[in-house]
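hi got a favour to ask and not much time before my train. below you get a single protein, a line of residues and a line of whole numbers that encode the local backbone shape. could you go over both lines and see whether the tokens make sense for that sequence. a few lines back from you is plenty, here it is:
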Amino acid sequence: FMAEAQGKLSGRPGICFVTRGPGATNASIGVHTAFQDSTPLILFVGQVASDQRDREAFQELDYRQMFGPGTLGLAKWVGEVQHADRLPEYVARAFHTAMQGRPGPVVLALPEDMLAQATGAPVLPRVEPVQAGPAPGGLRDLRAMLLVAERPIVIAGGSGWDAEAACALQRFAENWQLPVACGWRFQDTFDNRHPLYAGDVGIGINPRLAARIRAADLVVALGVRLGEMTTGGYALLQAPRPTQKLVHIHAGAEELGRVYAAELLLQASMAVAAKALESLAAPADLPWAAHTAAARADYEANLVAPAVEPLDLAVVVKTLQRLLPENTVFTNGAGNYSGWLHRYCRHPGLQHHGRTQLAPTSGAMGYGLPAAVATALLHPQRTVVNLAGDGDFLMTGQELATATGYGAKRLLSVVVDNGSYGTIRMHQEREYPGRTSGSDLFNPDFAAFARAFGWRSEFIARTEDFEPALRRFVRAGTPTLLHLKLDTDVITSRTTLGAIRAAAQRG
């Protein structure tokens, strides 16, 4: 997870070294996250000596079978270096593969005997990705489609963005006055404060935004995979043939046409595509001004939160943003608690501070804390906040030790404790009201747990106690955990377990 976070932050492969079978299997969740999130990553794995292969030697695994392309979602390429003289070749290929097209993870196996070989092989030059651009004819077709549209919308996200590309995207949207939504967990692609921003598309989507996408006559999908979460289970855009005209622009040829029969497919990196879109000349008069203004109004209305007692997570998220620096990085893993962060956190956009949101589109529990630790160590001048549910935190909570051991600063972990695997409990109540199984948690004292690792910590049960505690963290500037006790009934930012149960019982 830490290497994956490094890849997200830098745009170059995060590097991870692990031992044989146990290390590889433990690392597989991070590799899967890198694949689904399109994050460049290289995993170096120890392998048994060549003369012991295929004997089920100690911790032996066939990494090509485990991680290979046949798994449909673990690694882009798996290689094994048999001769030390070829290490530069294999490593260069790993970097190229991890960054080209749709970025993703690569696995390199290192046999024990190869590591003992001497070599004088020269180191190859630094690898840079090739930036593909859209065909001029495709851009003309896109402009023609915009000229006849009445209710267009852009959905932007995915990997491969940098500050310059984000600026170009903003200018394209401004030139054409297009509402822009961001794909699931890529909310920092476009400045959320900009009047053209319409919200995020994914789990817990604003119902009005969902309706607007369904009613659109043109959807420009820029960099996003159009996976299950961003498309609302392939329902916002009906698969395989959407009712809306669809333009899909993506760096990976394998993604174009994979699910959707689009009107127009363009293969291009985001760095080149956004600049090309910026150059498309817009007419003086556009017919969708009211459509765009309404999209923004819907987003702002969605920021208004109903009051919750005794602890209000909407107020918690808004207080974090109000008191912490604008370039604060927010991380999270999986769980219903993340819905408050996604709904109420307003990201300033890549062009201002780079990535400010690290969250797994793979839905991996336990991602947030390691990602936060990695960010705090890579960018010690920035404040980093990890919001975690209790179940999510317990997956990787021991990484508090890594933060302490390596001297992380300005790192805050906010643990939302509702004594439950909330997402599972929610679905149980929806399908089998009153009949829950295995979704209760029996938690430690998280504040005491953090102190055992040398962190500051506080327990908070009321909304009014959160801001003073946050101010104490800001003054201290040292790793701090805030243990928030949340009523189990407060299950999402929009409804309660009681309401879900009652609706299910009514049938």
Notes: Residues 21-36 form the longest helix (16 residues).
